[in-house]
Amino acid sequence: MANTSLDKSKIRILLLEGVHQSALDTLHEAGYTNIEYLKHSLAEDELKEKIADAHFIGIRSRTQLTEAVFEAASKLVAVGCFCIGTNQVDLKAATRRGVAVFNAPFSNTRSVAELVLAQAILLLRGIPEKNAKAHRGDWLKSAKDSYEIRGKKLGIIGYGNIGTQFSVLAESLGMKVYFYDVVSKLSIGNATQVNSLKELLNISDVVSLHVPETPATKYMFGPEQLAQMKPGSILMNASRGTVVDIEALAETLKSGKLLGAAIDVFPVEPKSNDEEFVSPLREFDNVILTPHIGGSTIEAQENIGREVAEKLAMYSDNGTTVSSVNFPEVALPSHPGQHRLLHIHENIPGVMSEINRVFSDNGINICGQYLQTQEDIGYVVIDVDKAYGELALEKLKSVRGTIRCRVLF
Ligand SMILES: NC(=O)C1=CN([C@@H]2O[C@H](COP(=O)(O)OP(=O)(O)OC[C@H]3O[C@@H](n4cnc5c(N)ncnc54)[C@H](O)[C@@H]3O)[C@@H](O)[C@H]2O)C=CC1
Ligand SMILES: O=C(O)C(=O)COP(=O)(O)O
């Protein structure tokens, strides 16, 4: 019988953006050795070349997986985003090609929440400015514009995993927490949901953005929202760089309206640590600028490395898609002594009956079958006696609506 299940040494994995060593260790332990590891992200042309023979790719927030990149990635089986956000991946392009995308939805949540809490305390005390002045030899000992965090109002925009963690930490220091979210959410602790962004901005001393990048959040924070903020308040953004209109923020800072700001993410970020960081915010001493390190702690990176690598290895070894961000989720048992067929198809009427006909017409007994569908695609996994894997694979490939089909031994 032809050896159709790929030998692990032939499965090529491209890891970009310096993902943690734990990812490499996890993949090695799972038997994957054909790994190219790069510390930086790649621009589209170079990426298209490198991805052409990759079966799996691991990225962080910087690498853009566009339609054109997927078009060049004819062997790609899955993408691992070693981070929370997946806005850098054209998920529709991935799904159309039957490429599963995984991420680490919780592993750096706490790191971001701790950072923004620390930034709020520093900004309320005017520390960034005092620190910058001290470095230049100026002694700014004064209580002017310095406040405790206790009793201040925190306005969280996007009350998801990070927003709620931040909410809990802030309350423990005596902040009063309000939040705005497009979805009605159960308040954690004593937080209060408000009905509009305007209402939130009108009452908050500290405003913090924790929304994903979506068409609705792109530049959701511009001149109008800055005008609605309280004089002397603070703006923090550790979500995505496109959420805040940076030019408008620079104008508002120039006017002296805000006490300060903390910005971790930018519309354009350097590709690597060797590139200059360019931003109109560089001139302001009362702005904390951090190089997109909200999730960059040893703890978070180590956990993310392991978590996402495990998801990739699991999908490769066994077909499990639990917690995929674009695929129907199927949790699968092991399949000793059997061949496992993974069939990804367009979710159109009649595909399943055609698939089942392949087995009945060819006298192939189905030992196990698992199916999940979502709006656009269906994912069916069929275990058969190992004598029939090759025949079934060939037949399944010609079923109408088939996007991709592979067999695992
Ligand atoms: N700076 C950094 O290093 C990091 C940044 N992030 C960013 O933070 C984002 C949030 O992360 P999580 O809290 O884990 O996501 P999440 O999905 O748990 O929460 C996002 C929340 O935003 C809400 N939301 C969506 N659109 C909205 C809108 N237009 N207006 C108001 N609320 C809206 C959602 O309903 C949800 O409650 C990620 O998508 C990522 O872009 C995440 C980790 C690290
Ligand atoms: O987890 C996320 O969404 C982040 O923004 C962190 O991205 P990074 O892994 O630091 O490029």
From TrEMBL:
Pathway: Amino-acid biosynthesis; L-serine biosynthesis; L-serine from 3-phospho-D-glycerate: step 1/3. One of its GO terms (molecular function) is (S)-2-hydroxyglutarate dehydrogenase activity. It comes from the Bacteria. It is an enzyme of class 1 (oxidoreductase). Coiled coil: none annotated. The keyword Amino-acid biosynthesis applies. It catalyses: (2R)-3-phosphoglycerate + NAD(+) = 3-phosphooxypyruvate + NADH + H(+); (R)-2-hydroxyglutarate + NAD(+) = 2-oxoglutarate + NADH + H(+). Keywords: Amino-acid biosynthesis, NAD, Oxidoreductase, Serine biosynthesis. Its EC number is 1.1.1.399, 1.1.1.95. GO terms for biological process: L-serine biosynthetic process. Residues 340-409 form the ACT domain. Belongs to the D-isomer specific 2-hydroxyacid dehydrogenase family. Catalyzes the reversible oxidation of 3-phospho-D-glycerate to 3-phosphonooxypyruvate, the first step of the phosphorylated L-serine biosynthesis pathway. Also catalyzes the reversible oxidation of 2-hydroxyglutarate to 2-oxoglutarate. This is D-3-phosphoglycerate dehydrogenase. It comes from Marinobacter nanhaiticus D15-8W. The lineage of its organism: Bacteria, Pseudomonadati, Pseudomonadota, Gammaproteobacteria, Pseudomonadales.
